[in-house]
């Protein structure tokens, strides 16, 4: 993609996936409040990020309005009993010192990620064959979700119970918005990933992509990207989007993904 196309794609991403975002699940709520767009978990579900994340998705701030708006969002989520709130800050968001202002308000930055996009039709055409002994299993039920959760815990060393709830909720209530897959070595799950698709959007998000350490470097990550790209292309989705870690970025670049910018999750945690 040339610079002009990348600028157009970034503008479309900001519009479709941030400013005009849809909620993660049917019982979460996305709303515009002043100069921000935020997602709120249902009442009584504000204790974590995962099932229905409490998040600020988009903002239109300047040096004069930023501090007051940050304080207003903290007050709003604290009033709802939220245990954590994520403010997803993108490198092109304004004002330029918004990250510093978030830190001053008690938000803590997590590791930076690279916002990357690729054309779904091109990625779907990648010549990829499963590594020897690997088969793919589509996740359509609770047993499949448990395999995904198990892989994630072993691949990343963390457990996210709320993610299990999110996956089960989407499969039950909005199955058309998710495509999840587990790579199996015989009866052993060794890698897993998912793709989230919102009706009418030009973008599908690739998430997860966790592979057990002893199975890395064999082409499984590439296989899961191509598999999801074929699903997206069949549905007429133009772009795949990834918030890439430092480990994933070089792989995605080799596959043809381009960089739109950087993103840093800033997390506010309620005090006990």
Classify the helix fraction into a percent range: 25-40%
Main beta sheet: 12 strands, mixed
**Whole-Å distance between the termini?**
48 Å
Average pLDDT: 92
CATH homologous superfamily title of the largest domain: Gcn5-related N-acetyltransferase (GNAT)
CATH architecture annotation of the largest domain: 3-Layer(aba) Sandwich
**Contiguous helical run count:** 8
Secondary-structure-derived class: alpha+beta
Description:
The chain is of the alpha+beta class and 272 residues long. The protein has 2 domains: 119 residues, Aminopeptidase (3-Layer(aba) Sandwich), CATH 3.40.630; 143 residues, Aminopeptidase (3-Layer(aba) Sandwich), CATH 3.40.630.30. 35% of the residues lie in helices and 30% in strands. The chain has 8 helices and 12 strands. Strands 1, 2, 3, 4, 5, 6, 7, 8, 9, 10, 11 and 12 form a 12-stranded mixed sheet that branches. It is globular, with a radius of gyration of 19 Å.
Please name the defining characteristics of this protein.
272 residues; alpha+beta; twelve-stranded mixed sheet; 35% helix; globular
Question: What's a quick, concise take on this entry?
Answer:
Residues 134-272 form the N-acetyltransferase domain. The protein is an alpha+beta fold and 272 residues long.
Topology (SSEs and partners):
Layout: H1 3-19, E1 29-33, E2 36-40, E3 55-59, H2 66-79, E4 84-90, H3 98-104, E5 108-109, E6 113-119, H4 120-124, E7 134-139, H5 142-156, H6 161-173, E8 178-185, E9 188-197, E10 203-211, H7 220-234, E11 239-244, H8 248-255, E12 258-269
Parallel strand pairs: 3-4, 10-11
Antiparallel strand pairs: 1-2, 2-3, 4-12, 5-12, 6-11, 6-12, 7-8, 8-9, 9-10
């Amino acid at each position: 993609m040339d610079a002009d196309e990348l600028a157009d794609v970034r503008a479309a991403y900001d519009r479709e996936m941030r400013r005009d975002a849809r909620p993660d699940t049917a019982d979460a709520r996305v709303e515009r409040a002043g100069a921000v767009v935020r997602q709120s978990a249902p009442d009584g579900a504000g204790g974590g990020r995962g099932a229905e994340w409490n998040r600020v998705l988009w903002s239109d701030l300047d040096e004069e309005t930023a501090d007051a708006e940050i304080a207003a969002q903290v007050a709003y989520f604290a009033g709802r009993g939220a245990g954590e709130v994520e403010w997803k800050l993108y490198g092109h968001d304004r004002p330029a010192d918004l990250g510093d202002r978030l830190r001053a308000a008690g938000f803590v930055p997590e590791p930076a990620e690279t916002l990357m996009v690729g054309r779904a039709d091109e990625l779907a055409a990648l010549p990829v064959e499963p590594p020897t002994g690997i088969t793919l299993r589509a996740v359509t039920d609770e047993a499949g979700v448990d395999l995904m959760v198990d892989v994630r815990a072993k691949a990343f060393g963390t457990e996210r119970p709320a993610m299990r709830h999110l996956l089960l909720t989407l499969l039950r209530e909005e199955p058309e918005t998710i495509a999840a897959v587990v790579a199996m070595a015989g009866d052993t799950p060794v890698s897993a990933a998912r793709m989230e698709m919102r009706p009418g959007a030009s973008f599908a998000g690739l998430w997860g992509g966790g592979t057990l350490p002893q199975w890395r470097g064999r082409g499984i990550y590439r296989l899961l990207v191509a598999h999801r790209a074929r699903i997206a292309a069949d549905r007429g989705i133009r772009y795949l989007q990834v918030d890439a870690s430092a480990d994933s970025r070089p792989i995605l670049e080799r596959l043809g993904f381009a960089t739109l910018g950087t993103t840093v999750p800033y997390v506010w945690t309620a005090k006990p």
